[in-house]
Structures are given as structure tokens and as C-alpha cells.
Amino acid sequence: MSQFSFAHAGNTDWQAALGSCWSQLHAQLADKPPPTLGWCYLSDRYTGAAGNIMEALKAGLPAVRWVGTIGVGVAADDVEYFDAPGIALMLADIPPDDFRVFSDLAPLGTDGFEPFTALVHADGGTPDLPERLKSLAGQTLTGYLFGGLSSARNQPLLFADDVMLGGVSGVAFGPEVPVLSRVTQGCQPIGPKRTIDRAEASYLVTLDGGRALDCAMEDLGLPADIPDEQLRLELGQTLAGLIAPGEDTSSAPGRFGTDTQVRHLLGVGRKAGVLVVAEQLEAGTRLAFCKRNAEAARHDLLRIVAEVKAQAEAAGGARGALYVSCSGRGGPHFGAPNAEFAMVREALGPVPLVGFFAGGEIARHHLYGYTGVLTLFA
């Protein structure tokens, strides 16, 4: 089967950028079956032109169903348009009976289609978003979602044939569209995995029988008499890796498992020894304090690319790839512009690759942070 087609361009003039993309696509489509599904990722420099761009895409390829979103950055191949004008497009010739585009206006489950997996784009401000993702995962036969949240600094626009402000949308795939997906963590634990004994909403009270703050200071190697200002600075650079009760905790020593959700520490009550975490907490959750580590992130990214590439080759090869990375990662996190997608491209090989930098990443029914979600279409 043929590979997907893809194109990308950046220009302060969106019409010039789109024109460049059209030229790239037309050259690739000449000897391929007509496309039926398209991905469109726009950097938020093009927010004001999103409606015009979507109309132009629909007029140019009227048989194609379009999905996508806007982010602070988009990417394709080994080029990242981060905080810069950018368009990334990908086209596939998937039989129309094997996928369904959905949105709040056209939800899944209304025509008898049985989803196997689903790509999801969402606005992080959507009410009850975690519950909606769990419900959507429950509608798929595998329970597997992949995707991310719009990271646009102006309007979190989503594309599902039309341009929508907010909500949840995407495309569901049937079992005839095999996808292979992995999550890479951007953090490394700096202490043991502890168990939450007591928590109230986002307030972390006790861990392993001790005060939460005392445990954090022990794991961070901070002295008991550290000044308040320095303590706040250290905790502001620290994150909490959370593993919910019943989730898979297996991972190599010094590395998080794929079910780990990483959240900021938002505050501290020194007298009470309480920490405030950017998540609703519950007793029994495993927790390890961590910090963002570019070297660990690099090794883990290359590991998951190698794993999913080998799995795809065993299934006959990959037709296309989608990579959603946290907006806190990208080239700057890895030391140079374009560095993250360049690593994925080099390790993956010549497979059409597009993606965007998200305000939160989606894998299974979870919302992640500081991660990358790589998905291959086999």
C-alpha cells in the first residue's frame, strides 16, 4: 500500500504558505489513489485565517474529510514551526467506511459505526474533559485514544470538516486501520515511588505516613532550614509523577511507566507540610517527585520510536506517522531548533510525519503533560 502524502510551509502570508503546500501535495498525489482523509495543523499565527484555509482545503480536495487543530507550534518531517507561521498537512487514502469524523455537533455512535481507536483534538477548557475522554475511550473497542489539546494562545480552534471554537473533535478508526502508538515521558523520577495516604482535592497531605513536604524535601535533598524563598523556587521546578490506583506501574529503574501523569506543584504550606498539586488527588495513588530532564527525554524518545518502528515493520511497514508533543518540549527543550522532530525523523526513517505542540497530550483515556505521543499507521 502507498504511503500517505504530506506537505508543510511557513510564511507570513498564509496564501503563499498554502500555495507551497498545494505544490508539494500535487507532486505526490499524481501516482496515488485519491485521498479521503486529511490532517491540518496550523500555528496560532494563522488563527485569523483558519476559516479561509479550511475553505480552500475543502474546495481544492472536496472528497477529503479534514481534522486538526491550532497550536503554538506545528511540525512536519524534520521542521518545527514553533512560535512562527506554519502549516502542516497530511493526506490518506483510507476507505471512507473505515473512519468517522466526529465533533460536538456530530458525535460518535449515531450511525452504527464501531470505533476501534480514535484521534482526539480538544480544548483544554472544555468542562469535564477528563470524564469526556473516558466516555469516548469507552466507545472504542480498544479503549485507546491518541491526540492532544490545542495550545493556541488566542483561540483554541478545532477542525472537523469545519472550524469550531472549543469542545472535542477528531476521527475514529475501525479495525481495518491499524495504529501503533507509544508515549514518551519528558521527566525522570528523582526519588522513590511513594503512596498517597491522605489528600483533599488538590492538597497533598501525607505520603508513606509522613508529611508530604518532608518527603519532597528528602527526595530533593533539601536541608530543613532552607529559606522560604529558595524552597518555593526549588518546588516550582519540581513536578509530581502520578500513577492512579490500578494502573500499570511497571517501568525500568529510574524511569516512569507510560501511565504516569506529570503535574506541577502549585503551592506549599510549610507549617502544615502540605503541597498543592495541579490535579485532583486520591488516596492510594503512587507518586514520585521529578524534574524535566532533556537527556532522559532524548533517550526515552528514541526508545519509543525504535519500538513502534519495529512493530510497524513486523506488520508490513508504516504508511504515515503522527507525533503530538508538549508545547513545553520541542527544539528548545532538546537544545536546538527542530531538534525533537529531527530526532523522530532520523530514527523513524522516510515515513510521512506531521504533528503539533499541544497544551496537553492524550493517550488512552489520560491527559498527560511534558510527554510525546507517537502514532504510526501500519
Task: Write a structural description.
Residues 34-211 form the FIST domain. It holds the Pfam family FIST_C. 24% of the residues lie in helices and 37% in strands. The protein has 8 helices and 26 strands. The strands form 4 sheets. It has a 6-stranded mixed sheet with strand order 1-6-2-3-10-11, with helices on one face. It has a 6-stranded mixed sheet with strand order 5-4-23-22-26-13, with helices on one face. A 6-stranded mixed sheet has the order 7-12-8-9-24-25, with helices on one face. A hairpin with a 2-residue loop joins strand 24 (361-363) and strand 25 (366-368). The radius of gyration is 21 Å and the shape is globular. The N and C termini lie close together (10 Å).
- CA-based shape: globular
**Strand portion, in percent?**
35-45%
| Intertermini distance | 10 Å
The main sheet orders its strands as 1-6-2-3-10-11
Helix content: 10-25%
Number of helical stretches of at least 4 residues: 8
Structural category is: alpha+beta
Biggest sheet details: 6 strands, mixed
Rg over alpha carbons: 21 Å
Whole-number mean pLDDT: 92
Supply database-style keywords.
6-stranded mixed β-sheet, 37% strand, alpha+beta, 378 residues, 8 helices
Quick gist of this model?
The protein is of the alpha+beta class and 378 residues long. Helices cover 24% and strands 37% of the residues.
Topology (elements, then pairings):
Layout lengths: L4 E5 L4 H16 L7 E7 L6 H11 L4 E7 L1 E4 L2 E4 L4 E6 L6 E4 L14 E6 L6 H10 L5 E6 L7 E4 L1 E4 L2 E6 L5 E7 L1 E3 L4 E7 L2 E5 L2 E2 H9 L7 H9 L2 E5 L17 E9 L4 E4 L8 E7 L1 H21 L5 E7 L3 H5 L4 H10 L4 E6 L2 E3 L2 E3 L2 E7 L1
Parallel strand pairs: 2-3, 8-9, 22-23
Antiparallel strand pairs: 1-6, 2-6, 3-10, 4-5, 4-23, 7-12, 8-12, 9-24, 10-11, 13-26, 14-21, 15-16, 15-21, 16-17, 16-20, 18-19, 18-21, 19-20, 22-26, 24-25
Helix pairs in contact: 6-8
